[in-house]
Amino acid sequence: MYPYNPSRTYLLAQCGLSKTFVRGEGHILTDADGQRYLDFLSQYGVVSFGHNHPQLVAALQAVTDAARPAMVQPFVGQATEELAEKLRDVTPGELGCTVFTNSGAEAVEAAIKLARARTGRLGILSTIGGFHGKTLGALSATGNPVYQTRFGAPVPGFEYVPYGDLNALADKLQRDGDAIAAFIVEPVQGEGGMVPAPPGYLAGAIELCRAAGAVAIFDEVQTGLGRTGAMFACQHAGAAPDILLLGKALGGGLMPIGACIATTDTWDHSFGMLHSSTFAGNELACAVGSRVIDLLLADEGKLVEHVDRMGRYLLERLGELKDRFPHVLKAVRGKGLMAGVEFQRFEGDGSFSMGFASRSGLLTVLLSGYLLNLRHIVTAAVFNNAHFLRLEPPFTVGRDEIDQAVNAVESICRHVDAKDYHELFRHLTDVPGVPRPQGLYLSAATEMREQQTPPPTDGNGTFAFLIHYIDQADYVRVDPSFGKFSSDRLGRWRDWVAQIGPGVLNHVPQVRSKNGAETEGWMLAVPMLPRQLLEISHSDMLGLFRRAIDVAKRRGAKILGLGGFNSVITRGGQRIVGQGIAITTGNSLSGVMAVDGIRQAVRDRGGDLGDLHLVVVGATGAIGRLCSLLLAPLVGRLTLVGNSLQPDAPRRCRVVAGDVYRGALQQISNGDGAAAGPVQQAVVGAIEAALKREGGTSGGLQQWISQHMPPDRPDETLKLAQTLEDMFDAASLPLLVRHTCDLAGSVADADVVLLATSSDRALIGPEDLQRDAIVCDVARPSNVAADLPSQRPDVLVFEGGLVDVPELADIGRDFQVLPPGTTLGCLAETVLLALEGDYTDHSIGQRLDLAEAQYIGALAEKHGFAVASPETCRKR
User: Fold this and answer.
1) Residue 861 CB coordination number (10 Å)
2) Which of 777, 800, 823 is the last residue of a domain?
3) Could you tell me the residue range of the domain that residue 166 belongs to?
4) Measuring CA to CA, which residue among 436, 433, 648, 467 is closest to residue 539?
5) pTM for the full model?
6) 3-state DSSP helix/strand/coil % of the chain, to nearest 5
7) CA 410, CA 397: separation in Å to the nearest integer?
8) Of the spans 67-76, 457-466, 501-510, which averages the highest pLDDT?
9) End-to-end CA distance of the chain
10) pLDDT one-digit tens code per residue, 535-565
């Protein structure tokens, strides 16, 4: 693992955001290759005066050149006292009692302690969507559970009200004012997406707090010291709080420092005596901070006026851009040089990758990478809004630099407008291979807390379904512009996107069954091919599905369906059950619908299954085995084909044959023998022949079955298969249930072929089949050669396991190449169980239960789900 913060290091490297900057001067950064970048981030407002501002560097050097002591706690340093005096003089209202900290977050911690000491109360009120830092107290005041829940935050005593809503604040203070020590708020919610407080809000909040005896704390760690075009953002509103917090810009981009500044009336001596910090208020940081104040006041505040003018110009240019591209940009917000743009949500129309990035918190991270690598602009996302791109340059920026940055954002809009999405992702294909820390996926590292859709109505079930890429063609099919990539670049994209992990593809707003039941759900995706899924380690597999389950549960899903190879690599879901959400592979309904499709295809061709030879390829898999059990009573002959590359395939095939025989014995025992198909009749004949050889009579049939009926376990049904095969041989009776690994020899005389393997390649070609054969291909990716339908028009090849669903709109987006109203059996089973309100595990493992399959089939009929016509699903 990387020595420095492996998770963040990997995230930056994988997103193309890993640069080694060797020089910073003004608003320009230069990397190790000599490439220059325009800094429109300022390290989140820290580098407000540009990199290595000469006067700030000189202030720092003056301390060291004079050999002044940098650390003199508990004594008060010269620069410390000087900076405190300057802050008293420039802050609004009666503010003037300062303690210094090492960061903005520590300033928040100090303010919380001071407010509690002053009021004797513990409650702290903050706003939803606010951001106040990542130490435990500051984190508890931050209105975003994503940053809190894993760290035991919020600690008791913290509550939240909507930002900008004075009525909500008044109601809360009226109800619980006696317990509330302070209300902390940002004049501009930076990490919430550069949201300025509405007119009258800040002054009104102060008035309400003072009436309730609570302390009004303004967090100006990011907005303070000129950033918004005034010395302090609260001055725009003519408001002066009880406590003002500073940080970021106070250190001039050279030293970490924060400040908690209180009015004399708010100051508390117990706090002053008990609160201290080893490094806070050191001479180096305070010397720089003192010079920062000088720069802001110089020439009667000329620099702050410049920020105001440039901020207005920036917002004007961005507003023009929004007017030209309203379908790309949702909003432009900010104050001064603390601004940015909010992108519209991408639903995946025209680009699966844009929709996936939009839903998974990756959008502005990836767009920042595009701006960095292709336009050489440094910027970043905000923390609490995954669609907002911040534009926060140093105060030294001019119109030309603003034009350069806005033109770069315009290039994003133009690419989206032209649907040239590949241009926005191209830089990622140049990212060198980066070792991924075990269990870490980009989608987990970047997911933001956003309410993406209204919560389910009471009584409605909620499902999630996990899909993946099926074959190479999917990359271009769901992202048409990626067809402009060279084959080499497309391959590099395939390798890059596989590192993302599970995320949200789209929301399915409503599914209604024929009896009026309703549900809604989420389509999740893991952007990997089957072979990539098969190659991941066991621990990575578990991490991937923990992430998928977490995504599903966060969105209220009560059941998670596993599409395609997600079922294969979890052993039919066995490896991931018991994690607080029901799991289904959907294999039962897939099998039931495949069988119904075969029966319909045979009827449509005027045939009788009892006269036909059925070959099941992939008979040892969950669907292949289930279909074998369901079709065995109906067909003339059955051949079970296993994988010749697996050493235990012959044994596993014989186990399935034993399962078939066990089913036949049960049917005979239940008195259904007279109406049974050829396989059951052959079993009766073999048993009766054996009884005759032993001197018994046919009347001993039931007794023989009673004595030889095995438990439903592989080792026992294996013995049954061997016993009955010996009896067939002894009676010189034809073996109607064969098992083999000879694929070509088996399908050569097949009337019906069912393909249900976990192979990711074609297994059957035009030359392999007899005339007028029927092929039901349940496998995804397809096990049928692409040219088979065109080369053999006499052969009916159709996708099996597909379901026609009533009123099912937009459930699979472009990820399924299926007729309208038709979907995959595994997805349909997931939806069915949600409609039924059955949130228990289903279709788990390789040995699916016939009774469970019958239950799922009955649910399909109840809710109006039916097999998709083989002709409709015919491959051409």
Assistant:
1) 10
2) 800
3) 1-406+425-450
4) 436
5) 0.88
6) 45, 15, 40
7) 19
8) 67-76
9) 50
10) 999 999 999 999 999 999 988 999 999 999 9
